[in-house]
Amino acid sequence: MNDPETLAAQNGFSHWAQLNMAAAVPLEAVRAMCADGRCGRYGHNWACPPGCGSIEAAARRIAGFDAGILVQTTGMLRDDFDYESIAATERAHKRRFADFARQMRRLHPGCLPLTAGSCTLCARCTYPDRPCRYPTKRLSSMEAYGLFVSDICTRSGLAYNYGPHTMTYTSCVLYNKE
User: Fold this and answer.
1) How far apart are the first and last CA of the chain?
2) Which of 2, 65, 128, 178 is most buried as measured by Cβ atoms within 10 A of its Cβ?
3) 71 in Cβ contact with 171 (< 8 Å)
4) By C-alpha distance, which of 73, 177, 94, 89 is closest to 138?
5) What span, in angstroms and rounded, lies between the C-alpha atoms of 146 and 28?
6) Is the pLDDT of residue 16 over 60?
7) Where do the H-state alpha helices sit in 36-158?
8) What pairs with residue 75 in β-bridges?
9) Span 150-170, pLDDT tens digits
10) Which residues lie below 8 Å from residue 3, measured CB to CB, with a gap of 6+?
């Protein structure tokens, strides 16, 4: 069997590190950014608040894990407004992370993969009218769980920003070592 770091390398992530579990504390202030409509998915997606549950439920779920791994995809941009490269980096990260999450779910059943951005499995989410089509595959974001991504990266010894003309997407998987 492969360990999470080997899987991160095999999936082509730019950077990875063990997640400092003491830093994985859901914050109401982060969740409030969702409610403010920053990404427009609040109340429109099962993987986003309020569909993904309360901040208290997120804290209880996170507390059930003793390990985690952060994974990142960093892309180079021609300039700060190179939206084509930003979108390409996001697509690459989402593709890598979907594969990584599937592999981690096999290695560590019951693990919690948290992606960058909202779940995009379906072109149109069934929230709130019908149950999620793929409850075992859907991916909530780190922010939906109230996690302050830049702080978690820093406290885990992983950079959050890799310099001018770069874009980095960060995700994680929480799991139990055994």
Assistant:
1) 13
2) 65
3) yes
4) 94
5) 6
6) yes
7) 55-63, 83-107, 149-155
8) 167
9) 999 999 999 999 999 999 999
10) none
Q: Which residue has the tokens 């929230």?
A: 127
pLDDT digits (tens, 9 = 90+) for 24-43: 999 999 999 888 877 888 88
Q: How far apart are CA 139 and CA 113, in angstroms?
A: 7
Q: Quick one: how far is CA 83 from the chain centroid?
A: 21
Amino acid at the residue 165: H
| pLDDT tens per residue across span 98-133 | 999 999 999 999 999 999 988 888 999 999 999 999
Rg of the chain in Å (alpha carbons)? 16
Please tell me the predicted confidence (pLDDT) of residue 120: 87
Cβ–Cβ under 8 Å, residues 89 and 74: yes
Q: Which long-range contacts (CB under 8 A, 24 or more apart) does 51-54 make?
A: 51/127, 51/128, 52/140, 52/144, 52/145
* Token pair belonging to 103: 């592999």
Whether 1 has a pLDDT exceeding 70, the answer reads no
Instruction: Please state, in angstroms and rounded to a whole number, the distance separating the CA atoms of residues 165 and 44.
Output: 32
pTM: 0.94
Asked if 105 and 162 count as a contact pair (C-beta separation under 8 A), the reply is: no
Q: How many residues does the chain have?
A: 178
Distances from the Cα of 93 to the Cαs of 11, 28, 35, 73, 176, in angstroms?
10, 26, 25, 6, 24
Per the CB < 8 A criterion, the answer to whether 98 and 117 are in contact is no
